[in-house]
Design brief:
heterodimer, A: mainly alpha, two-stranded antiparallel ribbon, 19 helices, B: 490 residues, mainly alpha
């Protein structure tokens, strides 16, 4: 058991960074330096935590760094943090992606405000992943909307106000269901125990409920998380949001905030309502498979690169949902791993798209061609990221997708079979897009486009290193994820989970 | 004829006395003092009276701690935690509204002490409502509050809309008062008493063979209250009156009327008619659904900031009703928590609206806010925080306000009601956000800098501080609301 101060530091550092960045706003460039420093410290902290993390903390309990303080008894409000192998890598991913986004997608328009919002968003995302209390999770989860809203609405593209409103209202409405579900669960628990109102995860997981209650609560939770992930058909906010957001924002939304959805689905919807799983599993799995096929199909015909990545993300999130919901351990481990890998891969995609946008002032696929000629290094880096996304053996995407598909095959064969078509689809839309953008004879402004400079190259190096390293040697990561998934499965097990 | 003077517990009625005395003193001063009573003096007296009332609530709280809750003046007045906290909120709102009104009066060149006299009287009426344990006292408080407000609404003699709003408010308001008193008469006919605890006792110990009279009376009382708190479908006056009234008056009204009327409604429905819970709950359910949804939906199409806030306050009224619908101790605590947090927020919001309104108090289009936060970051950010709080974003008191009433609903099987209300909040989010982003938009209509007078600045700062501090750390207020339960809860 380690001190919870490590986790509290993860919240404090970005908040302090945001405050300091706002304070030094009068001095040119200082805010940016503060932000980079804060997110570097944050990243180092998460790496230390990852090494300290002990996956066998106490018998049948893999949560580490835990603490709980009740803030308001009448409200059942508490500060309660802890991480296990599932949240650990999302915490690492968060700090990594933010650092990369700051370094690679610097936005100089009103920079102090921008980096402050970005750091606040980091703190809130971090808070959601380390929260071990359902109400506390909701507060962080809901609050991420505010910085996201301001980032899109102030630094976005031409349609930014519309995109920001759509994003906010959409997710705000969906999380209304979540809040009601949380309150219902909390009061059911209180009425059963006749004790104090609490929303502690461990306590709520013991709540007795009828089959139909479990189903209703699962649906309420799943609506919020499906909208966040996004899972088809609640994805319609995501293309316009990713397309209109500034590059650093798109990276945060697709790489991190989307993971809040799938993480919530795994931790809370699956973890708290095992009774609902036998009935709800086929429904969600079907939606996930539809998402995979639909995302792949629309990605093929997307006209701009950001929307393209948005739809390919929809397909990838479909794979994650598949792994989360099947109930086989292998697939669940694969899903957690894919959450991490997809975060790294989309960060890579959006960074490169950001570089192209800076140079060409357009990300319309029809405006771009033959970029391989003037920018061979960029093309090479894009290829690595793309191949990882396709799931080429030896790169990170392969390991996670493979685990998900074989795990799903064992329990839900036909869903797995159809989902495998999505892998083919991914190869199709990615290679076709690559072909249109990078191959051929560069004409016009494309011919004179500058290649990535050394700084941009160095930002992409860690992304590529992670992609290769996790493709070749994922064992240390899997070793930390597995016990926690095992524990979750044992909790859920009575309702018929295999292997 | 032998008149027996009932025993009077003076501490219980001291806040009313102080506020009313302040009003009377100022009134006489304007009549008798040869030189004009300046605005500064009037504001000073009013602020002192408000502060005194606030300090008195601490003594009352201490006395409650020692001796427990009690009734006095022949059981017509209650001294319990609920009334004490509500009184404190009214005192704070009066203080804030007075300071805003002072700067407004200076800007508009309003001389004299009438604004302060009327605000004091209205507050005395509102405090009386929070303490009333008799339908007649509720009516007295309601009338003192309303009549003062009719005049306050008409206070801006330069704008015709002000007089128009006042007339509208007066006509519909007197109609509602008549309905209310008729309801009280019917309840008296059915139960033989107007005392709230006696009504509860009578209904608890007798089976009504023909409950029609009491039901009709209760329904008419509810209509009277629904009008005062602007619940749909009795809300039609509210947007026009909010728009027409001088902006500081609107802020005062939005806060103080809500506190007074909701406190009295809690007593009438839960203390007096608590035994008839199953009868009035379905009615209230429909009222809440209409109020939250219609309030939010109609706010979306408004272009005028004051009208928008009027509809927003209708939406909030729906939320506050949820706590009463729950009918439990948690529900009452939730309603009280909502009132404690919402009232200062709304006064501070209208303080900023007053400033933006400019000389003549007419620039209230949302377009007038374009780029405000770019030019004046502190003022803009303050408004953004206040709006986000009303939206219900976490880390502001608005979130916990909604949370507290929704929690009480879920505690009593009200999941569907809570969900409908919360989805209406998502609709409401639309116009709060649109307004917020207008503050931060790049192109600004005019570059005139808004001067923030000191008193108004203090009010805005106080409102924002309360919103954020208790938004991050709601513990003390939640405990306070929980301890401040009503004396007679079945």
């Amino acid at each position: 058991m380690h001190s919870s101060l490590w986790l509290s530091a993860l919240l404090v550092v970005p908040v302090l960074g945001a405050a300091l960045a706002a304070l030094v706003r009068k001095r040119e460039g200082w805010s940016y330096a503060v932000a980079v420093t804060a997110s570097s410290v944050e990243f180092v902290l998460t790496i230390i935590i990852a090494f300290l993390y002990n996956s066998h903390v106490a018998h049948a309990q893999t949560f580490d760094f835990a603490t709980r303080h009740v803030l308001s008894a009448p409200f059942g409000l508490a500060y309660d943090v802890a991480i296990d192998g599932i949240s650990l890598f999302l915490v690492v991913l968060t700090s990594f992606v933010v650092l990369v986004a700051l370094l690679g997608a610097r936005d100089r328009r009103r920079e102090p405000a921008f980096v402050s919002w970005l750091l606040l968003l980091t703190a809130l995302t971090m808070g959601s992943f380390i929260a071990h209390d359902v109400l506390e999770f909701f507060i962080f989860f809901e609050l991420t909307l505010v910085p996201s809203y301001f980032i899109i609405a102030q630094w976005g593209g031409a349609e930014r106000v519309k995109a920001a409103l759509k994003f906010f209202i959409y997710t705000f409405s969906a999380s209304a269901f979540l809040l009601i579900g949380i309150l219902y669960l909390g009061f059911s628990h209180q009425h059963q125990t006749q004790g104090a109102l609490t929303f502690a995860y461990g306590a709520l997981a013991q709540t007795q409920m009828t089959h139909s209650t479990a189903i209703w609560l699962f649906i309420a939770f799943a609506i919020a998380f499906a909208a966040k992930s996004p899972i088809w058909p609640l994805h319609t906010w995501s293309p316009i949001t990713y397309a209109e957001a500034p590059t650093a924002g798109s990276i945060e939304f697709s790489a991190l905030l989307a993971k809040l959805g799938s993480y919530g689905l795994l931790r809370f919807a699956v973890g708290l309502f095992p009774l609902a799983l036998p009935d709800m599993r086929p429904v969600v799995l079907t939606l996930a498979v539809i998402g995979i096929l639909y995302g792949s199909a629309v990605a093929c015909v997307s006209r701009d690169l950001k929307r393209f990545v948005a739809y390919s993300s929809l397909a990838q999130m479909g794979f994650i949902t598949l792994g989360v919901m099947t109930g086989s351990k292998i697939a669940m481990v694969g899903a957690v791993l894919l959450m991490f890998n997809h975060g790294v891969i989309t960060a890579g995609f959006f960074l490169i798209i950001g570089f192209i946008e800076q140079r060409r002032a357009s990300i319309q696929i029809r405006d771009l061609n033959g970029l391989q000629g003037p920018a061979p290094v960029m093309a090479g880096l894009f290829t690595v990221v793309m191949l990882a996304s396709i799931g080429l053996p030896g790169l990170s995407g392969f390991v996670s997708e493979y685990l998900i598909l074989i795990g799903t095959f064992a329990t839900h064969t036909w869903w797995s079979v159809v989902a495998t078509l999505g892998v083919v689809g991914a190869a199709l839309y990615l290679l076709w897009a690559y072909q249109r953008v990078f191959h051929g004879e560069a004409v016009g402004a494309n011919a004179t486009m500058a290649d990535v400079n050394s700084k941009e190259r160095w930002v992409l190096v860690p992304v590529v290193v992670l992609i290769v390293a996790l493709g070749v040697f994922p064992k240390p990561v899997l070793d930390r994820i597995s016990p926690s998934v095992q524990q979750l499965i044992e909790h859920v097990a009575p309702s018929g989970v295999s292997k | 004829m032998n008149l027996v003077v009932p025993h009077i517990h003076y501490l219980a009625i001291m806040p009313v006395i102080v506020l009313f005395a302040g009003s009377v003193v100022l009134l006489f001063a304007t009549a008798l003092v040869r030189t004009k009573v300046t605005t500064v003096v009037a504001t000073g007296v009013t602020s002192l009276a408000a502060l005194a009332a606030l300090v008195l609530t601490f003594f009352q709280w201490y006395s409650l701690d020692q001796h427990g809750a009690t009734t006095t003046v022949a059981h017509a007045i209650t001294l319990d935690g609920f009334s004490v906290v509500a009184t404190g909120v009214i005192a704070v709102c009066l203080l804030m509204a007075t300071l805003v009104g002072h700067d407004w009066a200076v800007r508009e060149g309003v001389v004299g002490a009438e604004y302060q006299i009327l605000a004091l009287a209205a507050s005395a009426g509102a405090v009386l409502m929070t303490q009333a344990n008799d339908l007649i006292v509720v009516f007295l408080g309601l009338e003192i509050l309303s009549i003062a407000l009719y005049v306050l609404v008409a206070f801006d003699r330069h704008r015709r809309t002000s007089a128009e709003a006042a007339l509208k408010y007066f006509l519909l308001g007197s109609f509602a008062s008549a309905i209310f008193i008729y309801g009280a008469a019917l309840v008296y006919g059915g139960t033989g008493t107007t005392n709230l605890s006696s009504i509860s006792y009578f209904l608890g110990n007798n089976v009504l063979l023909r409950p029609g009279l009491v039901y009709a009376g209760g329904a008419l009382l509810l209509v009277g209250f629904a009008f005062k708190v602007a619940a749909v479908p009795f809300h039609l006056w509210s947007p026009d009156v909010y728009e027409g009234a001088p902006t500081p008056v609107t802020g005062f009204m939005a806060a103080v009327v809500k506190v007074g009327a909701f406190a009295a409604l809690v007593r009438v429905l839960i203390s007096a008619l608590g035994t008839q819970l199953d009868t009035w709950r379905p009615i209230l359910w429909v009222l809440i659904v209409l109020t939250t949804v219609v309030g939010a939906a109609l706010a979306v199409v408004q272009r005028n900031a004051k009208r928008m806030l009027a509809y927003s306050s209708i939406n909030h009224a729906g939320f506050i009703l949820i706590g009463i619908w729950a009918g439990t101790v948690r529900g009452v605590a939730g309603t009280l928590f909502y009132l404690i947090t919402y009232a200062p927020t709304v006064v501070a919001t209208f303080a900023i609206v007053t400033l933006v309104g400019g000389l003549g108090d007419e620039q209230h289009d949302v377009a007038n806010y374009r780029g405000l936060a770019r030019r004046q970051p502190w003022l803009g950010a303050s408004l953004a925080v206040l709006l986000l709080s009303q939206l219900g974003a976490p880390l502001t008191t608005g979130f916990y306000a909604k949370y507290s009433v929704l929690a009480s609903a879920l505690d009593t099987n009200g999941a569907s009601l809570a969900l409908i209300a919360l989805l209406s909040a998502a609709i409401a989010a639309f116009f709060y956000l649109r307004w917020t982003i207008t503050l931060y938009s790049e192109e600004s209509v005019d570059a005139t800098r808004i001067v923030v007078p000191r008193a108004t600045g203090v009010v805005i700062g106080l409102g924002v501080a309360l919103t954020l501090v208790f938004g991050i750390w709601p513990g003390p207020l939640a405990t306070l609301a929980q301890h401040a339960t009503v004396l007679f809860v079945p």
